[in-house]
Amino acid sequence: MIAEEKATLISTKIHLASDKLWKVALFGPDNYKAAVISHYLRTKNKKLKKHAIQYASDFLSGFLNGELNNRVAEDALQYLIKFDEDVLFPTPAYPKFTFIDLFAGIGGFRIAMQRNQGECVFSSEWDKMAQRTYYANFGEIPFGDITKDETKKWIPNKFDVLCAGFPCQPFSIAGVTKKNALGRKHGFDDEKQGNLFFHIVEIIERHRPKAFFLENVKNLVSHDKGNTFKVIKETLQDLDYSFHSRVLNGKHFVPQHRERTFMVGFDKHVYKDKEKFEFPILPKPNKKFRNILVSCQSKIVG
Ligand SMILES: C[S@@+](CC[C@H](N)C(=O)[O-])C[C@H]1O[C@@H](n2cnc3c(N)ncnc32)[C@H](O)[C@@H]1O
After folding, report:
1. Domains contained in the chain, number
2. Taken in order 243, 247, 252, 254, is the CA torsion positive or negative?
3. Are residues 50 and 156 both part of a single domain?
């Protein structure tokens, strides 16, 4: 068989394999292989390259038999995860700082940070459907369960800001009422989700980002008569970070009454006494749901 024909055959096989993998293997809480490939394709982080090629080979070994070598595997990366430059919310062309996006959901933090010229260098979200949406928005498959060492080990050593909208059910009024009714524990005592804050602390302690930016429900401040919030604040201050917090309402930007606690802190080893953070004055609420519907409608029609 001549070389060109062979190449086409291999790429067709890779293509077929990638369509099958797309359906089964790319998303989920333990998807670190797909996440490594995807992070490598987007960030071109050299430290990920060797692993990305290895994982592409693992995915393809059953499909390509003897034809698989490093070059084929590298080509296959592009097929396995159709990384698209033309994503809805691309990384800024000339980023000014880096951040990681934990409990990423569908990427609310990421949009805001990218608009301020930030480059995301690691994302984690364990819900399959949220991962799919995040991929559609940013062209990147987030890593899964952040409580696992297999996920944490892929966080780059250095980055500037840690963003995390950690799960709120253990602290929210609705979550606490439900858990009380079911006789379950809430707050930090919630066995499944209460300790997630301490995983954030572990990551801050290990990587020492210049700043953290956290978000949770309004009730976080008053949960357990203020003790929960006291623990959060003091734990972060004990790491030598400043701590600023405020309850802000999303209605200043979207047509929804949505109060959330925002927490921001800066590494005192870096900023010493020079840090002068203040929460911004928010614009007057003027967004109407009707206007959003009209603009969607005109996009669909137009
Ligand atoms: C409050 S939402 C964050 C929403 C996000 N800020 C956004 O803009 O969409 C918390 C997210 O954490 C995710 N999550 C919960 N536990 C997790 C874990 N152990 N590892 C990774 N993600 C987790 C949930 O699936 C959920 O999407």
Report:
1. 2
2. positive
3. no
